[in-house]
Amino acid sequence: MAFDAKAKMEKTVESLKNELNTIRTGRASASIFDKVRVDYYGNKSPLNQVATISIPEARSVVISPFDKSLISEIEKAIQVADLGLNPSNDGKVIRISIPALTADRRKELVKQSKGIAENYRTTIRNIRRDGNDDLKKQQKGGELTEDQLKTETDKLQKLTDSYIAEINKVEEAKEKEILA
Description:
By secondary structure, this protein is of the alpha+beta class. The protein is 59% helix and 15% strand. The chain contains 5 helices and 6 strands. The strands form 2 sheets. Strands 3-4-6-5 form a 4-stranded antiparallel sheet. A two-stranded antiparallel ribbon has the order 1-2. Strand 1 and strand 2 form a beta hairpin. It is elongated, with a radius of gyration of 22 Å.
């Protein structure tokens, strides 16, 4: 049981890291485009599957579509994604300059990352609750003794505490990155 909870908690932390990577920090990064979906012949495709994303300088991004006819679709998808970026194209590539973050915007982004992290902490606690429910069912079914139930519940709590601490570390690192 604890292994199942551990695997779920591990996936939760990985998912948090991926979601926080999409938050813009004032430096150019290909990961801020992870959620951008481009209409490619009727299908919504991830941007990185229809174009090459390169970072020639710290504050600029160049997107080179594999199919030049997609350039306006890519531009539209970036604007719809609400990243606060203004793409411009020259017919061959899309150039995006990443503006420096204002103090207010940094505070907003920190608040946003804290909210995201709190949602993931809640997910970890829900996994713990489900695990505890499962352990109680096993005990009622005669698979576990009272002492075994206590031992397993304590193990699950320690596991939960360690993953909550991991989420806190990831959140703090993102906060430092935003405020830097």
